[in-house]
């Protein structure tokens, strides 16, 4: 598609395009907020992109933006949408109705994608359709103000510049529109864009205003645990300022998922169905679940995307019911070897059946650090399985456990190139001093955390420059399923230093120095920091 070469006269149609698309998108968001929240055009496009994104892209996004990856994606979509809108505006002014056709086509794609989202309702196509029709009509109206809708002679776009005739004055919006038209055009364009922005704001207010699930959560009283976790030993925490706390507060817990809009699942709507290769299908409701004897356990959850030294890991006290006991009711058949858990928004994780039936604390969790699960951490019910990365075990907003086989089904990230199994790897991390943080010479402390869930850590060693490996002191581990703090005093001498650490598990395995990236089954290597001392 070739646009006229002349720069003059593009600004106004481009502004009209942007304003029209803003209005369409805003009304689309508003319709979604009112009628079909998961079908918000932004969320649908974002969700589609997230699902289509190859593993390396997810990795790069998390690497670049960390848990801000979703904001980054939304900003990216907005920028692309604005550029396309401007192009549609110019196109419409030069070759009507192609601008409108572009807008309607993009909206059409959005509508189709929306109906194929796993949580789509019957009217999931509606917000995108509204966005497209409103955007197209608004564009036609705004351009009419410019007088640009008059039959535009096609401008030949030949290679031969000199031969190309200048567009007639009538198609140049700036010269065709008189001063009054131009003022009206600006007023209407501004009003159109403004209404679009107000609609977006309104849509957001509506969503927070009708956050019934938040209200349900806030009114909820967790049942008392039948089995409480042993108290955290006082010696589990060195109490060094700047060192990661041994229990991660809920509002500081890392969040990783594919959900652009946090699924809103009320306790009243929640149920879990266990089916597939089982003798008896089992369905339990929220009331069934909270009536069961619940157990507390403290488990460190880690993301497979966590780079060496990264912070996509946290430790919490969970309240839940052993999945093992629910599977006992369903009685998996002998050929089953995997459970594909599914969340309300279609995410799936493949967990070895064994990890859910052996004696580890694999639970359906409803509580996190003495509070109901925060919405973004899976309210009302998620899975927590010690020893496995989140992508193969920690399904949030979980509603289904399909007992199956690894050779028959694959989880969300396995389909995108990650390993089908994801045991957490032995790792250790330096939290103090911070990488590249300048220190003054003298006594200080090097400290961090180390973990190997299900096995436990027996030793952490620290090396400064090319010196000998020295044993760090380990705090008391809460359990083998949690990380453990470590520290080593250091008299820092002037100069530039490199500090690295390595852990040894209770099995005698020493953390490997081989550096591998997170994909496909978790990063390895020693965490190494650079410390300038003055
Ligand atoms: N429904 C759903 N559950 C999910 C995910 C997801 O994308 N959707 N991501 C998983 C991944 S990759 C991780 S690391 C953990 C993170 O849990 P958190 O956000 O509570 O820390 O959730 C897991 N459960
Ligand atoms: Mo993850």
Short summary of the structure?
The protein is 33% helix and 21% strand. It has helices spanning 11-35, 41-52, 55-65, 69-94, 98-116, 126-146, 173-176, 179-209, 212-219, 286-291, 323-330, 353-357; strands spanning 271-276, 282-285, 295-302, 313-322, 338-343, 348-352, 363-368, 371-372, 382-384, 398-404, 427-432, 442-451, 457-464, 470-471, 473-474, 484-492, 495-505, 527-533. Strand 13 and strand 14 (470-471) form a beta hairpin.
Walkthrough of the structure:
By secondary structure, this protein is an alpha+beta fold. The protein has three domains: 11-206, no CATH class; 234-416, Oxidoreductase, molybdopterin-binding domain (Sulfite Oxidase, Chain A, domain 2), CATH 3.90.420.10; 427-533, Immunoglobulin-like (Sandwich). The chain is 33% helix and 21% strand. It has a five-stranded mixed β-sheet with strand order 2-1-10-5-6. Strands 3, 4, 7, 8 and 9 form a five-stranded antiparallel β-sheet that branches. β1 (271-276) and β2 form a beta hairpin. The longest helix is centred in the middle third of the chain and has 31 residues, at 179-209. The radius of gyration is 29 Å and the shape is globular. Mean pLDDT is 89; it is low at 1-8 and 148-177. Bound molecules: the ligand Nc1nc2c(c(=O)[nH]1)N[C@H]1C(S)=C(S)[C@@H](COP(=O)(O)O)O[C@H]1N2 and molybdenum atom. The ligand Nc1nc2c(c(=O)[nH]1)N[C@H]1C(S)=C(S)[C@@H](COP(=O)(O)O)O[C@H]1N2 binds at residues 253-259, 301, 303, 343, 345, 347, 377, 390-391, 394-397.
């Amino acid at each position: 598609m070739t646009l006229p070469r002349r720069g003059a006269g593009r600004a106004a149609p481009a502004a009209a395009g942007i304003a029209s698309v803003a209005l369409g998108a805003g009304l689309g968001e508003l319709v979604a907020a009112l009628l079909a929240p998961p079908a918000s055009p932004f969320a649908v496009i974002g969700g589609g992109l997230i699902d289509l994104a190859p593993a390396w892209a997810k990795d790069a996004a998390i690497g670049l933006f960390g848990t801000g990856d979703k904001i980054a994606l939304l900003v990216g979509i907005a920028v692309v949408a604005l550029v396309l809108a401007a192009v549609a505006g110019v196109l419409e002014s030069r070759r009507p109705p192609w601008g409108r056709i572009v807008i309607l086509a993009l909206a059409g794609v959005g509508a189709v994608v929306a109906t194929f989202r796993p949580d789509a309702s019957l009217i999931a196509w509606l917000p995108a359709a509204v966005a497209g029709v409103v955007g197209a009509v608004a564009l036609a109206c705004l351009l009419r103000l410019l007088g640009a809708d008059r039959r535009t002679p096609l401008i030949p776009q030949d290679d031969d510049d000199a031969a190309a005739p200048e567009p007639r004055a009538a198609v140049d919006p700036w010269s065709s529109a008189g001063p009054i038209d131009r003022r009206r055009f600006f007023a209407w364009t501004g009003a159109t864009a403004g209404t679009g922005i107000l609609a977006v704001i309104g849509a957001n207010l509506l969503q927070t205003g009708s956050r019934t699930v938040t209200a349900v959560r806030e009114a909820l009283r967790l049942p008392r645990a039948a089995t409480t976790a042993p108290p955290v030993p006082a010696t589990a925490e060195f109490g060094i300022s700047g060192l990661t706390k041994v229990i991660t507060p809920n509002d500081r817990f890392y969040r990783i998922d594919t959900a652009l809009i946090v699924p809103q699942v009320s306790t009243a709507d929640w149920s879990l169905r266990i089916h597939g290769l089982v003798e008896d299908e089992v369905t339990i409701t929220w009331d069934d679940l909270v009536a069961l004897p619940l157990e507390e356990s403290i488990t460190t959850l880690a993301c497979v995307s966590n780079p060496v030294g990264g912070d996509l890991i946290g430790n919490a006290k969970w309240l839940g019911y052993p999945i093992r006991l629910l599977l006992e009711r369903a009685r998996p058949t002998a050929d089953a070897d995997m459970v594909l858990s599914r969340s309300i928004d279609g995410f799936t994780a493949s967990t070895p059946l064994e990890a859910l039936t052996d004696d580890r604390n694999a639970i359906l969790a409803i509580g996190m650090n003495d509070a109901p699960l925060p919405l973004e951490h899976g309210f009302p019910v998620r899975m927590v399985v010690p020893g496995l990365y989140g992508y193969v075990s920690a399904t949030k907003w979980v509603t289904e456990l399909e007992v199956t086989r690894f050779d028959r089904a694959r989880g969300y990230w396995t389909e995108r190139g990650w390993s089908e199994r994801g045991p957490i790897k032995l790792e250790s991390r330096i939290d103090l001093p911070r990488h590249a943080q300048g220190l003054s010479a003298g006594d200080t402390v090097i400290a961090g955390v180390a973990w190997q869930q299900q096995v436990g850590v027996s030793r952490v060693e620290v090396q400064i420059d090319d010196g000998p490996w020295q044993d760090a002191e380990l705090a008391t581990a809460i359990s083998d399923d949690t990380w453990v703090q470590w520290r080593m005093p250091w008299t820092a001498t002037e100069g530039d230093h490199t500090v690295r650490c390595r852990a040894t598990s209770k099995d005698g395995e020493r953390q490997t120095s081989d550096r591998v990236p997170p994909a496909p089954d978790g990063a390895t290597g020693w965490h190494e920091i650079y410390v300038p001392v003055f």
